Amino acid sequence: MAEYPNVPASLPHDGSRPVPTERVVARLRPNARALLWPALLLIALPGASVYGLSLFAETWQHVAIIAAAAALFVLLVLFPYIFWLNHRCTITTRRVIARRGFFVRERREIFHSRGYHVTLKQNWVQSAFRSGDVLINSGVEKPLVLRDLPGAEQVLDTLQDLIEKNQVTVSGHAGSLGTATAAF
């Protein structure tokens, strides 16, 4: 059985064998690089609004400038930040949980014990920031894509280690020779 350090084992109801408790390994969000333009707009918007207010003298023009600034703030600063906050990935010792969505929520889980194939895709910008897209393909359903995760190579290594530990836990042996049986 795979050992998880500092994790107490809980006994199943039949009392036969302790089962390791699920523990959070990592909580991840997409790279914050996606918030660069909203942050720059947040800095520039008040200055541009004050400058626009100084150009015009009419009250209706001031109201129009303030309304336009508020709309730009909500659409181009607030919404991207909220959508970034609502993309989450949690890696535990038993599964990968991906949550996303603001208006329509989606949650997908893939258990390590099922076994899956993990792929890392990086473009040149992601490679410069050491982030990347991690594709998890279980072979049964469409692949789970964790977009633009920071530290993508470490995430890939961690997922591969967790798959291996859970496969050992499920099968009860570490792939030693002579343990495979065939039923004919």
Overview of the molecule:
The chain has helices spanning about 35-55, 60-85, 125-130, 150-170, and strands at about 10, 20, 25-30, 90, 95-100, 105-110, 115-120, 130-135, 145-150. It is of the alpha+beta class and about 180 residues long. The chain has a 4-stranded antiparallel sheet with strand order 3-4-5-6. Strands 7-8-9 form a 3-stranded antiparallel sheet. β1 and β2 form a beta hairpin. The model is unreliable at about 175-184 (pLDDT under 50).
Task: Give the overall shape.
Answer: elongated
What is the rounded Rg? 24 Å
Number of E-type strands: 9
Secondary-structure class: alpha+beta
| Amount of beta strand | 15-25%
Q: What assembly state would you assign to the polypeptide chains in this entry?
A: single chain
Poorly predicted segments: 176-184
Q: End-to-end distance, in Å? A: 28 Å
**Element string (H = helix, E = strand):** EEEHHEEEEHEEH
- Please list the strands of the largest sheet in the order they lie side by side: 3-4-5-6
- The averaged pLDDT comes out at 85
Q: How many separate helices?
A: 4
The biggest beta sheet reads: 4 strands, antiparallel
Bin the helical content.
25-40%
